[in-house]
Design goal:
Layout (H helix, E strand, L loop, with lengths): L19 H5 L8 H17 L1
Length: 50
């Protein structure tokens, strides 16, 4: 029996129906690790100064 023709609800697609999300945040472009380390060191120094 073909249950796809029995009138049940269709499965929802998880993909968005527009391409604007791709323009906002391109994948694969992470900030450099040096920037992360600099932020972490600054936060640690600020916490130690309190």
């Amino acid at each position: 029996m073909d249950y796809s023709k029995s009138g049940g609800p269709k499965r929802r697609s998880t993909a968005p129906k527009h391409g604007e999300h791709k323009l906002q945040e391109p994948k694969g472009k992470q900030p450099p690790k040096e920037a992360l380390l600099a932020r972490m060191k600054a936060a640690a120094q600020a916490k130690a100064a309190k």
